[in-house]
Amino acid sequence: MAVRGKDRIRAKLQDGDTLVRILLAHPMHTGRGEDAQGKLIDAEFIQDIRCWRNDKEVLTIKCGTATSRNPFFAFQLKGGVRGDVITLRWVDNTGAKGRAETEVQ
Amino acid sequence: MNEQFDAARRYWLKRGVSATTIAMVAASGLLLPRQLLAHWPRDAYSAKTVEDALLALLGEADLIDDDAIYFSVGSPPTYAVNGATVPVEINSTLKNIEHIALLVEKNPSPLAMSFVPNDDVMLPFKTMLKVAEDSDMLAVIRAEGKLYVTRRYVEIDIGGCA
Question: Are A67 and B113 in contact (CB < 8 Å)?
């Protein structure tokens, strides 16, 4: 299972725009990898990530199995002020969910 | 005696009805998390070739090779030691971007990631992907009904698709 409570999200102002960096804690098994005993590990990967700024949805990411372990994303949002709330939710193929939230620094 | 029998019958009738209702709701999939994932494009992500994946994800459109997409793979560029974490950066001068997709040609399922930015999102977008072997990578942007595509070749030391 995914490690809970380790999703990290940082947002800061940079030249008037908001730079968002996301690091999720997730093993992202593709279903093709083997464990130490040579048994296949079941697929378990994040499929859907959605991102909000102050209740307005800004970005939807759909991931396939080729997203690396502990997925990392970085992008910028136009404008923004200190104290904006950036929220993120993800769902994986087993139905596990995660949520992370931060204020723009 | 009769009354007692009646009460018992009522009890079991009620039980039966609610059990059936629950079973029906469960069967309809309303209680399953799968419902949440209805929008995940399964066909596109399980496609085995780049063409099939793009067709399933973005529909029919002419591919236009374009320099308006800045696409960098690996660090240093075109090379990555570990295929499990290949850094990818995508930027573009195109306006009205509707959809962006990243594909790795020789992965078992080429489509790696796709995302839909709204007007507030500015590129560059950075992320990390798994790449199984030396392969072309494609960045595809749909903007104003056209598909723009850029290719980059990346060399991998250790394949990373486990």
Answer: yes
